[in-house]
Design a protein that fits this description.
Helices cover 25% and strands 25% of the residues. It is α/β, with parallel strands linked by helices. Helix 8 packs across helix 9 and helix 9 crosses helix 11. The chain is globular, with a radius of gyration of 26 Å.
Length: 452
Amino acid sequence: MAKIVTKYVCQSCGYVSPRWVGKCPNCSEWNTFVEEAPSPLRVSRKPSSVASKLDPVPLEDIEKDDVPRLRTGIQEFDRVLGGGIVSGSLILLGGDPGIGKSTMMMQLALQLKDSVVLYITGEESARQIKLRAERLQAKTARNILLFAETNLDLILDVIERGTPDLIVIDSIQTMYRPGLESAPGSVSQVRESTALLLRLAKTRGVPIFLIGHVTKEGVIAGPRVIEHMVDTVLQFEGEAHYSYRVLRALKNRFGSTNEIGIFEMHDAGLREVRNPSEVFLSERRSGTSGSTVVASIEGSRPILLEVQALVTPTSYGMPQRNTTGVDYRRLSLLLAVLEKRVGLRLGTHDVFVNIAGGVKIDEPAVDLGIATSITSSLRDVPVDAGTVAVGEIGLGGEIRTIGQIEKRVQEASKLGFKRIIVPQNNAKGLKAKEIEVIPVDRIEKAMEALLS
């Protein structure tokens, strides 16, 4: 008898080892290796006798398929997808437990009243899905077909016998193929299940949504294995103590990866936030030090946010540096620039920086707002409540050029702000009627204009 050779696969990154190891040499995770028996492969040295019936086609002879996108009726969701759902696309939706992934999919299914939606659940019963639909105040849902099953062979049989216009898999980690010996949720099962669903989506032209779990590090479980297989990867983000949710595209073959959709969680489900700037600035108090309004760009949408900073004398030998919504390394860089170029003494102070509303921003254009809030808190001098600050700070203390300055200025003017601090090079040719544009080229001049 032939010897059965087993392999050990890391469930975090998919690394394969011939023997069990405690720590993965690829992703450094502990106790993630699971034994899997590879399926036997028959290798033949003879050339294949199967001839392809298809010939290569010149690129210019291929006809374009002008199939319109499927509009969901949820504008924020359509914005992230690039204008709607593309026929035959495979979309992965990930997020923390309880963030609202299943709620979002149920609301989407309820909106598509003229389309047959097959909702396959592997974690909840059909009765639980029914209760969720009632909580979302669903009046009629004749277009939604529920099927509680995890065996992909049975699921494919149901799909072949019906004609769904859209399929939802909740979740991909619960699906399994009986031909594989590994347990559901393992890397091999997730990979094979995704490959099977991908072929189904492409051959039948049916869009399929896969709901994926998130690991403790905040990434979708198994993305290194399947993210290159799917067409779109959507991440549902949100802080546990905030009602706002941000839908972000990490990968999109049919649209931009810079767009975001903003929702607010209520008892009756998720509601769209059409004007996020007003929402994020609604609780801002004027006359308080350490608070600056910045104009950020997410995709094609300008958003005004409040950057808060608190600088206090440290009670420990090593000062603390804590951030919420801002990159920690970027904060360290800005603190070094403030000490070197502005002359602030922050080595004996704790610094806390927060983006109000639980939003995460990684755009360099908010550097000036962060630096201004830190300086304002240290000196206990409030920033003018009618001023917005935008600009990237270089290591030499210069205010560098940023993109899409016109949209930022228009958003600040629309919300009633009187002044906006912009990089000097961005002010050339900039026309603004109802707001004063103040160009600055150095961080020292920016602090004088904001804290005078």
